[in-house]
Amino acid sequence: MLIFEHSQPGRANTAQIPRDIDKVADIPEQFLRTTPVGLPEVSEMQTVRHFTRLSQKNFSIDTQFYPLGSCTMKYNPRGCNSLALLPGFTQRHPLTPDNLSQGFLACMFDLQEMLKDVTGMKGVSMAPMAGAQGEFAGVAMIRAYHDAKGDDARTEILVPDAAHGTNPATATMCNYKVKEIPTDDQGDVDIEALKAAVGPQTAGIMLTNPSTLGVFERRIKDIADIVHNAGGLLYYDGANLNAILGKVKPGDMGFDVIHMNLHKTFSTPHGGGGPGAGPVGVSERLLPYMPVPVVTKQDDQYRLLTEKDIPETMGRLSAFMGNAGVLLRAYIYASMLGRDGMQRVAEFATLNANYMMARLKQAGFQLAFENRRATHEFIVTLKKQSKELHVSAMDFAKRLLDYNYHAPTTYFPLLVPECFLIEPTETETKQEMDGFIDAMIKINEEAQSNSDLVTSAPHTLPVKRLDDVKAAKQLDLSWNN
Amino acid sequence: MPFIPHTEAEIKEMLETIGVSTTEDLFDEIPAALRSKGLESIPLGQSEMDVARLMHQRAAEDQRSLCFAGAGAYEHHIPAAVWELTTRGEFYSAYTPYQAEASQGTLQLLYEYQSMMTSLTGMDVSNASLYDGASSLAEAVLMAVRANRKSKSKRILTLRSVNPTYQSVASTITRHQGITLEEIDYDRASGCVDINNLPEEPGDFTALVIQQPNYFGNLENIDALTDWAHKHGALVIAVVNPTSLALLKPPGEWGEIGADIACGDGQPLGAPMSSGGPYFGIMCCRKDYVRQMPGRIIGRTTDLDGNEGFTLTLQAREQHIRRSKATSNICTNQGLLVTAATIYMSLLGPQGLYNVASASHNNTKLLIEKLSKVEGVTRMFNSSFFHEAVFKFDLPVTEVMNALSAQSIVAGVLVGDHYPELENCLMLCATETKTEKDIDTLVDNISRIASRLDATKHSTQPEMA
Questions:
Q1: Domain end position, chosen among B326, B344, B362
Q2: Are residues A45 and A186 in the same domain?
Q3: Between B75, B77, B278, which is nearest A275 by CB?
Q4: What is the pLDDT of residues A214-254, one digit of tens each?
Q5: Rounded (5°) CA angle B10-B13-B16
């Protein structure tokens, strides 16, 4: 039932709303609303029940193992939330003068410095509100760098074919042509193809390392040299930073600009699809172009740097200073981890992924790259099941839901047919992973003995498989239309 | 180990299963020269208790007693149930509902949100949110360029009274695609665009951006502006404050046929000010343009048994399918804030939101009346307004602000940085959270500071002569 269907005309929560209000008399009629606002009229208890019940129809990290590859669905510590919601933080107006905001700015500065160290970059700006905005900031800085040199022949961004969809979409937003670089059969970038692709038209390359194929790009130094020698810059997509946190610094790999997804690596909540935070780190040569604001410390006072301080900035990305509350949560998490904890993150994320990969291999599942180490994630391909039993990766995914496990990322990366990208993260127990593996083995048996059970799954959720074609053809996007 | 559950026995067993002797062995594909030398500047991990102590101390340091700043972020009362429910783990720790069957809670909630927003704005369709108000304007501009196929100029006209930071963000995000933003100035007396002064032959332009109420809180002549843009073949992008729409004419009803795209910041609907974010961006449009809209969109459909269900739809617009040809690079949006907003709007209902809008406006009106009586302080503009106003000070306004800061009062926002002609002006807003006593506290303080500064000015004059 929709919240609107609980509505009764005239019902109102008088404890929660302003009372005894004088009718507004000074705004002329031409500006006023004459049509009613179609919000529900429900009691507080009805509201609480409705949304509590809705919440119970969700899978989440707090209720299920959620091995969604490339999304780093690790546990979100409760302390990070409650401390970020202290009134001094939530009630701070974003335009409060710096001298009245030293507490908040101190947190921002400390986080910024930690992110600098962990990425090995010279400067960090925390302005971008999500990974995709961080990517945009990064590519716009690459453009600003070439523009400042008067080098307008660089019209192309190179993107490996395994990249996230946001990479090519971002390059387009910055008015670059996208050239795809193929991947070799071991999951590394095809170096010969890269050599053939670079030239005076190359503005840069966007890389994820470890790549979306769940393996470390071993020849990263060669790639950096090839692109740099051609006059291009290297962009690091930090989606998979969890795999190397404290182990390898992107700055040491030769990257000029990187974005981090704090909602992945630094455990801020995914919130049903955001908010995220996508800080960018830059090398020396891109410092003049960082997005504003940036926090600085001068004479023991913190302040925000603006366009006045960074006149060549690529610009501003949000009305104020990005997703500040998300940054606070990341700061609290980073403080609890410390440098010792950060290194353990990569170690145990990698241990968990390799353990799952080894066990699934033993159970007869086919790996996409069986001669490679898993990083924090790995790929299983179900092409054999699809071909021989007509049970697809999507069918396995839906059946996993019946076993109370969220499905791994399905059909991404696009290069591997019928794939599952599996990322357990460091916060999962061995018992939980064993349970998932047992479910995979069981489903594989079902696929052989009773494939209908799998292809028609899920059977135990609030709804069965949904008609996506109908959803797109007979658009029903709101209750009242 | 913080947030890592492994026991020594389990680690040993797992390593044996993998066939290596230490976790270090798992990193053997990484060239040794690249391995990190350590994280010298990062402190060692602290306990939750130690971090809590530091955070309490820092939060207390920033605690202020009164805030009259607005300019796009507004202090409203948020009912307790809003964040109690929003931070339930099932909402808080879920991700984008790719597996629809396991995400019906979030999906239905987003559908309800879309329904509420279309009603509030009077528009046909809404998406499931963008990042914030400023970036929603950027996306609206990109969308207008895609949607208005008759216009080839990629030239966007914006009123100078549109939030200057929004304009700056829109420019940052759109300029690489050959899009230009040109301003139409406002009338100095009214603080609104004078419709009698609009260019008769503006040339080809793709869209006109109108903010209502505008950055200064003034009410623009939306009907005439909308019709003027449409007459010249341009689309109309409305930037709106959702709270105001309980009282003010919704963008879908502006002029003869309504605005084409409505955007804005959803913060007033249940998101705390929290230093500027996370908030969420609103994006609604005419039905014809739905395939040009960026971001997630939820549709109602049926399952195999014919029962109602909800799913992500029109995904062919998005980056994970279309890659370099997507409508936007947006992926993650602001789901959790939309959760809060949907619960907020449900709790308030039409009457509640109307009362919030009315009380906020009435309080600001009271503030104007009282503050205008202070010598040397005058309201800058003479037009109708909604819940915000600009004041000119005959005294150095930064000194007034500093003196108020010492009283733990955030007085308002200086507008001179963006508008040189409004130097020494302060913009203030008093929402429903302020009592008459709060307003008196502010006005009395300003009055006292003003007379002190005035006295200093007079006493120093002979010396300066």
A1: B344
A2: no
A3: B278
A4: 999 999 999 999 999 999 999 999 999 999 999 999 999 99
A5: 150
